[in-house]
């Protein structure tokens, strides 16, 4: 299958052998190439390979796979003979950039599990100035809609569900535990080794009420010491620095640290803003710079502990600090210009992590995590000026963002604990039991009106998940079945009821979710998979009980729930040094009881949370990847989703006239988008152990209506226009990736970029990044 | 191999440049543009579709209200980011102080052929919460509201042609001790005086200062002439950006509907009277709407001869305003009696909506029915009969306002 017979057997020989890891495990999908030729092969699952039809002569054989150190061996092939050549590859903690994915990495393995999951090796992006959001935005089914430049607010959607329907994790721990500064638009790509996006169906090990899916960042958990330090700067006075590393002391004590710093003035040009011309007495359009959008965030997370002791495979205690300072430039669209409003926050956490494999008995593994977080932020809106895009201002009669001036303090102390037991009975049957407890108190008050929150809400969520995985038919079939129990304890000193009386509020509610995920390999290269989950997004304490002054309680509020179904297929083909990977999937979401605050009894000052709407989503998505050795890589993907409003009757009615918008496409949502990326790299082009790599990518979003598609005359309808945003980057690496320098041009066609209606994003921008990486 | 590599490099570079240029299409993110309209459709109907957060408002023109049908399918102007139904119709134009959006502008629009065309726009940042308006004459528009904290009464006088604006704070009695702020409600210009319905509010659910208040200002000096108070009701007038709550009858007698709603759990809605030329309530007049109609009244529209159409709560103990619980009745304001309830109409939905418009002998009442078709109903003022007029395609969440444009 690999080679076309092109030469007579007398003049050729073969190279055969096996590749194993340092621990002796056979390694499949390792790329074996003969330097300077087109010859090569991939190892099979058992680690064996064969390169035949090799013309007699001397060669350098290279064995490479992402995540492992590349190895070379010299051989001489004799006609008619088979040379045996074995490789042992050592695991890399963080691979150097530029080694294009040629093997079956953990990400690929995850993609070929039963779950609908995007798994992204971030190494490919390690030399770019990307944050995690911009990397994930290029994958199928995901759309990140940012309101502006660095640090701006964003809405992360997975297969059409967004907002609170999507949960974020770092190594299985909710990011909120690290503090509210830890958001995906902050975290530099270098801090994660891999990112997993679970669509609609979550394994029990991620304990959360995720209605639409979850993102899990996986950091480097290897034992080896390493250091990855980078700094970039560029347009709009933007600076990013990131450090992650690990050292092991002589006494066996391991210390790890991750830190980042982001800064930007975000003073990009807003094109064609309307400004009042006093002389002409007209609004005229001008290009202006943003003037109040400075953003700064930093984070340090460190832990110290031991590994591979008798009593613990890992035991770490840690602490972290993070902070964010953000000037607020616009409201929900760019017509609302702010010039003084601020958001400032900081968080402190302490953590404890313990892992013990083969506890009590073989195959029973335990991991425990516990944390306490103090998370605080302040929103300051104390000016009474109205600002305009040229930076000028006039006195006004209310605060910038709301009717009244505020200096609102939000404090969310949190206690979190997670215990995970996994038990492998035998290679065919495994169990996973996961328990998380997440308790948060929500305190808000406006310092200008009061000195503390007199009515803090407190919620304790217990989540228990039990999963059973079977691996059958010689590993061709895997099935996972799971059940999840959610219990919430809610407490608030006071709740305002609909008639204006105060009652104390506390309660316990519980819900049960369940699901399954299956994968079947029809052929070694072709697999199909399907998954289902009855998923929830639990009510928050404020939604159930209101806030005690302008939101009244609604104890009948139901959680948001959804039936999520995924089905897909994937193909991996290898031919010589070419590798293709293709996957396609269909998904269905039937989500009900979306919770929104609704004005209560025509009293525009008072609202109540209600279950207002239902959505049904059908979608397809597909991705193609092609690699030619470590020289060329390309990925093309496309996502299409049809999200229909499934709300049949107006809120409050259970009958009568059917809503005009019933079965209409949900407005203001991208429904067709795609990405293409290509990279071309060459080793040793400009000296020994160097690599030069050119990266290009494009993101396309088809235009969409801001409002209901079927209604209103077309010419009057607001749209978010077509977007084709392209980025280019060039990276030069020395000493096998120890030193790297990259130059990048984002949005190089200088498109007027929009994720949201009338919220312009940055135009063309240039960045330079320097990165030092040793292991 | 290096030749292949170089070729690939070149191809990639070329490809990216090409796609870059081809993608560099210009688009215009401006919404509706067009020539200034020199007229308009005769009538306009404002509607809202969808449940939160996907609610959208539209305005659609109609040449007649007596027959035919109107639908938003591919028809009507989407007003998002331009205007909302808190808007002022006058002599073929709409005037929009961006009260809900905070664009900080005052805009003058014309509506014709599915186009809401901007005639003129000027910066307007003095007020962001305009609650009511009145016309001193055809070229002089007065806008009234309160500041963000609710402790100042703000007034802007606008030249309707040039949109030149004069802003001022009006003197009123200070907010009584123990109350949080004030709300302005109705506004009418009568014989050189401005009559402003006022409320002093508390933090909900504490009830508002329990008085029905009218502040009377001399125009244009804007001196406070009198501030009337009466303890039998609260919530004087209605914010007429959204609905009408006052009637000036043919004799010059001025009737104001008080509508307590959430301002008081106990006081009834009632009509007060200020007789022509007076600056005090007619002490002998108090028309208790709760008693007369069996439920509080929310809006009131003059149909001439001292009569009015009132919208009142006709059913239900519904906790929200989303149910179909509103009925219409004809009242005789002079005699303080109910003429009759318009029981021919289905129950309507939505409280603060401009659903009645009077033209000649016809009063048009736009009703959002829970089942069956939605119509603009025609009340024949002379004969007292009710018939269906223009049909409005069903399933729209709110029928917001109906305006005569020409």
UniProtKB/TrEMBL annotation, chain A:
The keyword 4Fe-4S does not apply. Keywords: Cell outer membrane, Membrane, Receptor, Signal, Transmembrane, Transmembrane beta strand, Transport. One of its GO terms (cellular component) is cell outer membrane. It is a multi-pass membrane protein. Residues 110-214 form the TonB-dependent receptor plug domain. GO terms for molecular function: carbohydrate binding; siderophore uptake transmembrane transporter activity. GO terms for biological process: siderophore transmembrane transport. InterPro entries: Beta-barrel_TonB_sf, Carb-bd-like_fold, Plug_dom, Plug_dom_sf, TonB-dep_rcpt-like. The keyword Signal applies. It is found in: Cell outer membrane. Belongs to the TonB-dependent receptor family. This is Outer membrane cobalamin receptor protein. The lineage of its organism: Bacteria, Pseudomonadati, Bacteroidota, Chitinophagia, Chitinophagales.
From TrEMBL, chain B:
Keywords: Signal. Residues 1-22 form the signal peptide. SUPFAM superfamilies: YVTN repeat-like/Quinoprotein amine dehydrogenase. PROSITE patterns: PROKAR_LIPOPROTEIN. This is DUF4374 domain-containing protein.
């Amino acid at each position: 299958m690999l080679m076309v017979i092109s030469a007579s057997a007398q003049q050729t020989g073969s190279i055969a052998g096996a590749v194993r890891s340092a621990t002796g495990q056979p390694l499949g999908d390792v790329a074996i190439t003969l330097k300077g030729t087109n010859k090569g092969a991939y190892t099979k699952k058992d680690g064996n390979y064969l390169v035949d039809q090799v013309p007699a002569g001397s060669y350098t054989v290279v064995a490479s796979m992402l995540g492992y150190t590349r190895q070379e061996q010299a051989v001489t092939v004799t006609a008619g003979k088979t040379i045996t050549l074995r490789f042992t590859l050592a695991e890399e903690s963080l691979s150097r950039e530029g080694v294009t994915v040629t093997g079956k990495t953990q990400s690929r393995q995850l993609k070929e599990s039963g779950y609908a999951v995007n798994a992204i090796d971030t190494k490919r992006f390690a030399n770019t100035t990307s944050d995690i959001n911009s990397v994930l935005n290029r994958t199928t089914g995901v759309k990140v809609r940012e309101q502006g430049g660095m640090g701006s607010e964003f809405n992360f959607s997975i297969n059409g569900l967004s907002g609170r329907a999507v949960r974020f994790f770092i190594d299985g721990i909710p990011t909120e535990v690290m503090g509210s500064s830890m958001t995906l638009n902050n975290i530099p790509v270098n801090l994660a080794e891999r990112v997993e996006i679970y669509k609609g169906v979550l394994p029990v090990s991620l304990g959360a009420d995720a209605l639409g899916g979850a993102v899990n960042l996986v950091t480097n958990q290897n034992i080896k010491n390493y250091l990855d330090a980078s700094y970039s700067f560029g347009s709009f006075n933007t600076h990013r620095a990131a450090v992650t590393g690990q050292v092991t002391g002589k006494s066996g004590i391991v210390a790890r640290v991750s830190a980042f710093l982001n800064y930007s003035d975000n003073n990009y040009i807003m094109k064609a803003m309307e400004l009042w011309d006093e002389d002409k007495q007209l609004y005229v359009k001008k290009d202006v710079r943003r003037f109040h959008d400075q953003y700064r965030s930093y984070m340090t997370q460190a832990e110290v502990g031991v590994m591979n002791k008798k009593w613990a495979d890992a035991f770490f205690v840690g602490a972290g600090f993070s902070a964010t300072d953000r000037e607020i430039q616009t409201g929900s669209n760019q017509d609302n210009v702010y010039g003084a409003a601020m958001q400032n926050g900081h968080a402190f956490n302490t953590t404890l992590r313990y892992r013990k494999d083969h506890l009590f008995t073989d195959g029973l593994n335990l991991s425990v995590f516990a944390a306490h977080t103090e998370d605080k932020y302040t929103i300051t809106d104390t000016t009474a000026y109205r600002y305009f895009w040229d930076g000028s201002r006039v006195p006004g009669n209310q605060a910038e963002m709301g009717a009244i001036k505020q200096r609102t303090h939000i404090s969310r102390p949190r206690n979190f604990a997670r215990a995970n037991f996994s038990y492998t009975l035998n290679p065919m049957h495994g169990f996973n039991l996961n328990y998380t407890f997440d308790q948060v108190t929500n305190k808000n008050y406006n310092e200008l009106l009061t000195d503390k929150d007199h009515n803090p809400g407190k919620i304790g969520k217990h989540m228990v998940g039990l999963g059973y995985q079977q691996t059958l038919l010689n590993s061709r079939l895997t099935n996972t079945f799971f059940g999840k129990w959610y219990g919430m304890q809610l407490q608030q000193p006071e709740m305002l009821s609909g008639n204006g009386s105060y009652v104390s509020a506390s309660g316990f509610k519980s819900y049960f979710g369940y699901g399954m995920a299956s994968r079947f390999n029809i052929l070694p290269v072709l697999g199909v998979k399907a998954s289902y989950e009855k998923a929830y997004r639990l009510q928050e304490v404020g939604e159930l009980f209101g806030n005690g002054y302008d939101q009244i309680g609604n104890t009948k509020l139901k959680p948001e729930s959804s039936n999520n179904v995924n089905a897909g297929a994937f193909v991996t083909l290898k031919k010589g040094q070419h590798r293709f990977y293709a996957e396609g999937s269909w998904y269905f979401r039937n989500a009900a009881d979306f919770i929104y605050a609704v004005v209560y009894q025509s009293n525009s000052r008072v609202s109540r949370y209600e279950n207002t709407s239902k959505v049904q989503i059908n979608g397809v998505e597909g991705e193609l990847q092609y690699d030619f050795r470590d020289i060329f890589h390309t990925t093309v993907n496309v996502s299409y989703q049809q999200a229909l409003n499934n709300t049949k009757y107006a809120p409050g009615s259970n009958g009568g006239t059917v809503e005009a918008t019933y079965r209409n496409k949900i407005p203001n949502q991208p429904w067709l988008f795609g990405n293409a990326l290509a990279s071309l790299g060459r080793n040793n082009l400009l000296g020994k152990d160097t690599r030069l790599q050119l990266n290009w990518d494009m993101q396309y979003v088809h235009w969409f209506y801001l409002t209901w598609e079927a209604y209103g005359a077309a010419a009057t309808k607001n749209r978010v226009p077509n977007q084709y945003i392209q980025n280019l980057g060039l990276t030069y690496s020395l000493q096998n990736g120890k030193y790297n320098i990259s130059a990048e041009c984002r949005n190089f066609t200088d498109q007027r970029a929009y994720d949201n209606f009338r919220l312009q994003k940055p135009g063309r921008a240039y960045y330079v990044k320097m990165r030092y990486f040793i292991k | 191999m290096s030749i292949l590599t170089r070729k690939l490099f070149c191809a990639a570079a070329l490809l990216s440049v090409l796609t870059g240029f081809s993608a560099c299409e210009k688009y215009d993110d401006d919404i509706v543009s067009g020539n200034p309209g020199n007229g308009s459709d005769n009538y306009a109907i404002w509607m809202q579709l969808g449940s939160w957060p996907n609610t959208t408002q539209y305005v659609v023109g109609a040449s007649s209200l007596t027959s035919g049908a109107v639908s938003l399918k591919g028809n009507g102007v989407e007003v998002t980011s331009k205007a909302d139904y808190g808007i002022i119709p006058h002599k073929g134009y709409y005037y929009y102080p961006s009260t809900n959006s905070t664009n900080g502008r005052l805009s003058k629009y014309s509506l014709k052929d599915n186009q809401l065309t901007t005639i003129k726009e000027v910066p307007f940042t003095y007020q962001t919460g305009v609650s009511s308006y009145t016309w001193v004459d055809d070229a002089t528009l007065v806008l009234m509201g309160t500041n963000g904290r609710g402790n100042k009464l703000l007034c802007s006088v606008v030249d309707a042609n040039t949109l030149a604006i004069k802003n001022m704070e009006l003197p009123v009695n200070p907010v009584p001790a123990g109350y949080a702020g004030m709300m302005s409600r109705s506004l009418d210009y009568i014989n050189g005086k401005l009559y402003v319905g006022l409320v002093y509010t508390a933090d909900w659910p504490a009830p508002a200062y329990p008085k029905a208040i009218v502040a009377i200002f001399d125009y244009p000096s804007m001196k406070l002439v009198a501030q009337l108070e009466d303890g039998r009701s609260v919530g004087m007038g209605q914010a007429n950006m959204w609905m009408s709550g006052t009637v000036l009858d043919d004799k010059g007698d001025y009737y104001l509907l008080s509508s307590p709603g959430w301002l008081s759990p106990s006081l009834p809605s009632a009509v007060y009277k200020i007789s022509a030329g007076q600056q005090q309530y007619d002490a002998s007049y108090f028309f208790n709407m709760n008693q007369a109609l069996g439920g509080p009244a929310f809006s009131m529209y003059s149909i001439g001869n001292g009569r009015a159409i009132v919208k009142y709560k006709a059913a239900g103990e519904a906790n929200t305003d989303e149910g179909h619980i509103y009925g219409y009745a004809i009242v005789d304001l002079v005699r303080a009696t109910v003429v009759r309830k318009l029981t021919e109409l289905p129950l309507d939905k939505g409280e603060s909506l401009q659903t009645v418009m009077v033209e000649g002998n016809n009063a048009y009442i736009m009703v959002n029915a829970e089942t069956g078709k939605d119509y603009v109903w025609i009340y024949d003022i002379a004969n007292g009969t009710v018939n269906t007029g223009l049909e409005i395609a069903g399933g729209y969440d709110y029928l917001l306002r109906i305006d005569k444009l020409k």
